[in-house]
DNA sequence: CAGGTTCTGGACCGTAGGGTCCAGAGCGTA
DNA sequence: TACGCTCTGGACCCTACGGTCCAGAACCTG
């Protein structure tokens, strides 16, 4: 595990990460077993510990890392722009499409955050970093909108970015039992309306 | 379990429910063990199964029921009114105060919903009912505001209610790592601004 | 006090699941 | 071909935890 991994090794390792990610998304961390991962990847126990000496917790951390990257990439190139209304709407659509593609109204990072907060503080901090990064990119977009004069100068980018991200996560939560995207879209669109109206969220 | 419970029995049973609720809020369902509950309540295994023959799942369901009631009661009397701006703000403050009192930025029902969605479909449905009830009360409030002419008639009560509830749940999620209520308040206030501006969330 | 109930204590069981170990296969390289 | 590395299979161990059982204490009622 000091970086010396064969090409085959890299592939196996990646296969394990992705399969674990799917299991976690479907059943949570607690509902994901190493035996399940082993079966899904046609590997053996020893391989899991060969690639992830730290055991399950290390594996989960790698999954969080991987999922975090995937999530941000799914929002490209718009997430790094967000300087026009078109860009915001394209971003919104890409995000909803990404979640739709997952086959379940849940955020890989968000659900991880919920579970980790209750069980694994270290992992929780790790996931929180992803969230902060994401929130920061949204705030940057709002700043660009402000700089371009598209939104009112009184808008607080950080607070609004937090509200938007909250709408995404909370919207997903409500979408889950409905098996429909409408709560997510309602929440998200409401927040985009806030941006559009340039209304200020009072401290 | 056919309703024949002594006064003492009732108390013990209730004690178990509340202690379990605290453990679940702190560590999630998976992180809550019957042995832990037993220790916290100074009871024995047999008592747990005496009062909850269905075992852990029945106990958790009762906890969900109890927490759902507590959550709604904490929002009274405003939740059943919400016909004026004062009422909305008093409701908002009461809700934040309730979460503050829990000592952790998490919703007893919300976190249950997340975990249940991944592990226990039956419980998930049960919790979803609480959420729907809650959402309905918010929607009723919006309708009252509309009827009184305080907000624009183009506002869709159900969509906005969903957005508000999403803001609460998502805001809590972001507040957790920050150990501060500001993300929750930012999200919640943004949504109240939507209500105030009477802006429509397009379908 | 007698009888029946509710309630309580704690020993015990079964199993799921994380983690360990080691022998051997596969594969690259001198 | 010989050596040494990474990679793989699977048997094994151990603990945690949900759940069972039964004997006896506490309590109520006549």
From TrEMBL, chains A, B:
<dbReference type="InterPro" id="IPR009057">
    <property type="entry name" value="Homeodomain-like_sf"/>
</dbReference>
<keyword id="KW-0804">Transcription</keyword>
<protein>
    <submittedName>
        <fullName>TetR/AcrR family transcriptional regulator</fullName>
    </submittedName>
</protein>
<keyword id="KW-0805">Transcription regulation</keyword>
<dbReference type="InterPro" id="IPR011075">
    <property type="entry name" value="TetR_C"/>
</dbReference>
<dbReference type="InterPro" id="IPR036271">
    <property type="entry name" value="Tet_transcr_reg_TetR-rel_C_sf"/>
</dbReference>
<dbReference type="Pfam" id="PF16925">
    <property type="entry name" value="TetR_C_13"/>
</dbReference>
<feature type="domain" description="Tetracyclin repressor-like C-terminal">
    <location>
        <begin position="106"/>
        <end position="189"/>
    </location>
</feature>
